[in-house]
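Illustration: HNH endonuclease.
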Amino acid sequence: MRVFVLNKRGKPLMPCSPAKARHLLKEKKAIVVRRTPFTIQLTIATGESKQPVSLGVDAGYKYVGLSASTEKAELYASEVELRQGITDLLSARRALRRARRNRKTRYRAPRFDNRIRTKRKGWLAPSVENRINAHLSRIETVLRMLPVTKITVETASFDMQLLKDPDISGKEYQEGEQLGFWNVREYVLFRDGHVCQHCHGRLKDPVLNVHHLKSRRTGGDSPGNLITLCETCHKALHRGEITLKAKRGQSFRAETFMGIMRREVLDRLKASHPKLEVQNTYGYRTKHARISNGIAKSHCADAFCIAGNLGAKRLGEFLFQKQTRRNNRQIHKLSILKGSLRKRNQAPFEVKGFRLFDKVAYQGEEGFIFGRRSSGFFDIRRLDGTRISAGINYKKLRLLEKRRTYLTEIRKEEARRPLPEGRGLRA
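Result:
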């Protein structure tokens, strides 16, 4: 991978080869700024000739692909795995606050007028806002390392009703599947024929309940997440005496997110970088370019096609980044006096100078601390879960990088020869 270069003022220049970077460091004309990806900053004034650099962004719900390239070579490639636990954390916080208010403590009562959505237009759910900010954060990181002149983001819009019913047309879009029913419960009972979907009426229990296949917190109240059960089966299910064979209907959470962020990312990029060319493209163009040029499917490959420089030489490797929760912002934690359990096996925040998710080296291999003991032994793994050592003493570890919000490691990707001039789809 190329070495990224910053000028004396901290502005990005064109990257150089590792050999040239070693020469600059040896001559003390540059200093190391970042280890992964390796970045240096010049300590002397120099020429600043630049080439047009295009950045392609393959936006997604779980993964984000980025690729920056010139007409001749790919300069940067990364794949980012986003956090998926925002909803669970918010639900846990909501439960703690409700329990705290019901204990008649000194804390204030809920103020229903004190809501951010009533104060600011454009409010988005925290889980959506986090993913959009993650997209923008990764783009800003590339802009700090490379003199990007154009950004292309792949956006998509999904017709959720068409995905549910391929034969829908005309006024059926306005009617919906719950037309004529007072509420979702009434529709679910009608859909299931007012019959328990487990015993199918064999227990002859006249009382019917509507059960969430997944918790309402994660699955919602959509009809696909609801099923009719008689009261006998419903209670037996919650006692763990029976199991259901039915599965939740298709979820469109990812498609909904892509519809929300479709314009949001573009608008925010244009507002923060008015002098930069920002445009969008669509998935069918990316797919055509990838298939026409024989490129294997991956998030980095899609981002490379989105950037548009299909004749450029691929890097052959990319940065895999995993987003983690860096801080615990929970204001109040339950103590033993308030009904919580003592955490007997929890190690201190820092053990022998090492923290959770620090990047370390052990016997020539690089990994991250996924577990720690107060005695000074650590569980070292790669980001894909491969265990390097289950319990290694801190004396045998060497700290490479302190933990960051995005854990980064270099992975190999199958390289591709540059295409002859004039071939491929220039999108």
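Reading the tokens back as a structure: The two ends are 25 Å apart (CA to CA).
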